[in-house]
Each structure stands twice: as C-alpha cells, then as structure tokens.
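Incident log, structure service

09:12 report received: a user says their structure output differs between two submissions of the same chain.
09:20 pulled the input from the user's history:
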Amino acid sequence: MSGTEPAHRITMLGKSGCHLCDDALRVIERVAADLGVGYDVRDITESNREERDEYWEQIPVTFVDGQPHDFWRVSEKRLRAALERP
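09:34 re-ran on a clean worker, output below:
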C-alpha cells in the first residue's frame, strides 16, 4: 500500500436488544482492533424509511466502505479478507 489509499471503514446497522447484533459487534470490534480499522454502529430504528424497508429483516447488516457485506451473521474470515484488500 502506498499510504494514499483511503482507510477502510466498517458500518453495522442493527438495533438494541438484538442478540445477532451483539454477536456481530463482537466480531467487528475484534477485527477492527486487529487491523486498525474504524467502525460505526447505526441504529436501524433511527434510519430513513427506505433503509428500514430494505434492511429491517436482515439485521445486523455489515457494510464495508459503504457497500453491503454481510447480513444476519458476520463471518470473521470474510470480513478480514474484505478489509485486507486495497
């Protein structure tokens, strides 16, 4: 890497009280810490109607660099692979 590429970013769309979201967040926190990647957690109940309609039944939804990556469960192996690509 030349140092000019933008850093990757993980976003998780979930909600409070969702056990799958809690599980996904643990994976995201571990991978983000290991790779030095930032992450956000967004509450789907505070999203716009289009986002709620599209993703409500799939939470937690994980995005890498704004693109949908995983839903329901987060594969640590897949997440690491996506973040290790330039």
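09:41 both user submissions now match this output. Likely a transient worker issue. Closing.
09:42 reviewer note: The mean pLDDT is 92. The longest helix spans residues 19-35.
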